[in-house]
């Protein structure tokens, strides 16, 4: 089996490659990097891994010839370009490369919970755009709609030395499904390695959650358990979200992040979820406290 991961440098792409290279079926893996200096040493050392230079913004740089399956990730954009137009461009480029390489039987897209909605979800609209373009890109298509990444709490690393962290998940006892990146990697790897086995539909779509949903108070407990000391939680209420994100991102990006955040709080479209993803959900095994331990290097 030959599998391409494009782009390969996102943390989810890295996790998928790690799972693929560890699999007993010994697949060959090709990863696309816009900057080859980003290739991790652990992959370089593996004879079944090939790193190639390519940018999803440049169709001519993508050649999937010989691959049986492709894992595609829509890279986030943190500048003032139109994120929807950008998602369309990179998805069109990947789709064209899949079609050109007649060998590709399965495309797996790393997507998001809420990607079925065309409004009200902020940054998740990039995943919506990618799904709209890629639903028929290959004979077999899988959309893995991931819940909130546990690793998002890594933003707390900046303030924890001062004894506190900000949370935009309110009320503090409201629980949200969360998933560890390593579980996203192993789930995507399993979908890629199953290329050629019949799927119930095209696209085959499922949500990927962690073992349970977590509240902000659970996050605080995880930090306290790993650090062995009390940690203060500073809630950012719904009305403060625009200002909170504007302090760290350019204005356009901040507006999308604030809208995405509001979408899963009470009253938001993902909270209401009027058109839920059909079928069974999948669940990762990794608990939040394990991810916190890894992020804090404890
Ligand atoms: N965070 C969440 O809670 C969440 C939940 C569900 C779904 N998602 C989705 O997950 C995806 C993000 O995955 P992630 O967190 O793994 O990403 P990430 O770690 O933030 O990585 C972004 C990467 O994209 C690469 N990149 C950016 N533009 C590129 C280009 N034009 N060509 C090639 N590579 C490019 C960057 O490469 P360099 O190393 O070269 O800079 C960077 O490594 C997004 O589609 C997001 O919508 C996120």
From TrEMBL:
Using the record's annotation, list all stretches that form the NAD(P)-binding domain: 9-140
Domain of life, source organism: Eukaryota
One Pfam family in the UniProt entry: NAD_binding_10
Protein's recorded name: NAD(P)-binding protein
The species this protein was found in: Parathielavia hyrcaniae
